[in-house]
């Protein structure tokens, strides 16, 4: 629609009528043009939001192997089972993450929330396996065109380290060969999603060493996925102090492994942390640091 103004004579009644018609039409056009000036950016913004949501939905489904119905490794599950994949109860044969849809969606939501709320800091995952959850964090940064935050992905990239206390309920995972995923394979997974770049930092080695010296000042997301007591303790002791108020601590295994829960509870008790742990699904939970002041509810 054109927004040109028009002049017209007013010598007779007809012209006068025309003036009214044109004036009314011009008024309508002006109004529509003004609306367009407002609506076009709004329409573009809602289209961007829709495309962003579609991209992140697809990433969630792909990263957990739901998109391609990637069968479970465990033979007793008998292939792909939707319930198992929603809840992260199984290990996908080839997909990059075992955390299931509910925890993946929660990770995505929390990453989006800290961005929208302006909570400063990078995103870090301690316990990466094939890289899926860390890839999701990088995908959220891409979806919001954020270039001033990084994803830090920490793991031995060789499976659970040897020194795990034998009594730890998660110690058996040390003997699972599929938990040893080499760094090159994880990088390749990032690359396949077009998300391997300088905004992704890999911290290779045991958390007790790598996280204490992690090259990071502020964190907005701290995701614990190392299963054991020591992995949770080492991660929280090294990094909780760097988490910004309003940032999220995500506990992938809190309700799954008793040792992991004990480490978290001990840490929270020592620091007198009362921010509530919000349950995500059977296994995982999270809390928002200083949740009162940050006004972050689910
Ligand atoms: C359950 S997997 C992580 C799953 C992954 N986040 C996903 O999206 O599927 C646990 C990972 O933690 C790592 N890990 C456990 N304890 C560790 C430690 N103390 N230091 C470094 N890596 C550790 C293991 O090597 C393994 O890759």
Core attributes:
single chain, 298 residues, alpha/beta, 7-stranded mixed β-sheet, 9 helices, disordered N terminus
List the helices and strands and how they pair.
Blueprint: H1 13-63, H2 82-87, H3 100-117, E1 122-126, H4 132-143, E2 151-155, H5 183-192, E3 200-204, H6 207-210, E4 219-224, H7 229-239, E5 243-251, H8 258-270, E6 278-279, E7 285-288, H9 291-294
Parallel strand pairs: 1-2, 1-4, 2-3, 4-5
Antiparallel strand pairs: 5-7, 6-7
Bound molecules: S-adenosylmethionine.
S-adenosylmethionine binds at residues 97-99, 125, 127-129, 132-133, 155-156, 159-161, 179, 206-207, 225-228, 230-231.
| Arithmetic mean pLDDT | 88
Overall geometry = globular
Please tally the β strands and state the result: 7
User: Based on the structure given, which CATH architecture of the domain at 97-294 is correct?
Assistant: 3-Layer(aba) Sandwich
Radius of gyration: 26 Å
Quote the beta fraction. 5-15%
First-to-last CA distance: 44 Å
Strand order of the largest sheet: 3-2-1-4-5-7-6
Give the cofactors and ligands. S-adenosylmethionine
Instruction: Indicate the CATH topology of the domain at 97-294.
Output: Rossmann fold
Largest sheet: 7 strands, mixed
Backbone structural class: alpha/beta
What is the CATH domain class of the domain at 97-294? Alpha Beta
Helix content: 40-55%
SS field, number of helical segments: 9
**CATH H-level superfamily title of the domain at 97-294:** Vaccinia Virus protein VP39
Low-confidence stretches: 1-24, 293-298
Order of helices and strands: HHHEHEHEHEHEHEEH
């Amino acid at each position: 629609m054109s927004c040109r103004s028009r002049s017209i004579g007013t010598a007779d009644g007809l012209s006068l009528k025309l003036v009214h018609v044109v004036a009314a039409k011009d008024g309508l056009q002006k109004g529509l043009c003004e609306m367009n000036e407002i609506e076009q950016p709004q329409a573009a913004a809602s289209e961007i939001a829709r495309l962003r949501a579609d991209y992140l939905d697809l990433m969630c489904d792909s990263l957990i192997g739901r998109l391609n119905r990637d069968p479970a490794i465990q033979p007793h599950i008998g292939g792909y089972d939707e319930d198992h994949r929603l809840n992260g109860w199984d290990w996908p044969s080839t997909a990059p993450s075992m955390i299931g849809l509910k925890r993946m969606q929660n990770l995505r939501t929390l990453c989006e929330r800290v961005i929208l709320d302006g909570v400063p800091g990078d995103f870090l995952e301690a316990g990466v396996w094939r890289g899926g959850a860390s890839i999701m964090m990088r995908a959220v940064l891409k979806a919001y065109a954020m270039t001033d935050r990084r994803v830090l992905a920490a793991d031995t990239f060789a499976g659970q380290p040897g020194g795990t206390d034998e009594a730890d309920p998660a110690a058996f995972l040390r003997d699972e060969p599929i938990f040893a995923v080499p760094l090159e394979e994880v990088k390749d997974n990032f690359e396949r999603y077009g998300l391997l770049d300088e905004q992704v930092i890999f911290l290779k080695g045991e958390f007790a060493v790598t996280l204490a010296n992690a090259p990071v000042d502020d964190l907005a997301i701290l995701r614990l996925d190392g299963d054991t007591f020591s992995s949770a303790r080492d991660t929280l002791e090294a990094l909780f102090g760097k988490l910004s108020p309003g940032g999220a601590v995500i506990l992938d295994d809190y309700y799954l492994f008793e040792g992991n829960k004990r480490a978290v509870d001990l840490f929270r008790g020592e620091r007198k942390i009362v921010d509530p742990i919000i349950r995500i699904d059977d296994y995982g939970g999270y809390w928002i640091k200083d949740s009162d002041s940050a006004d972050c509810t689910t």
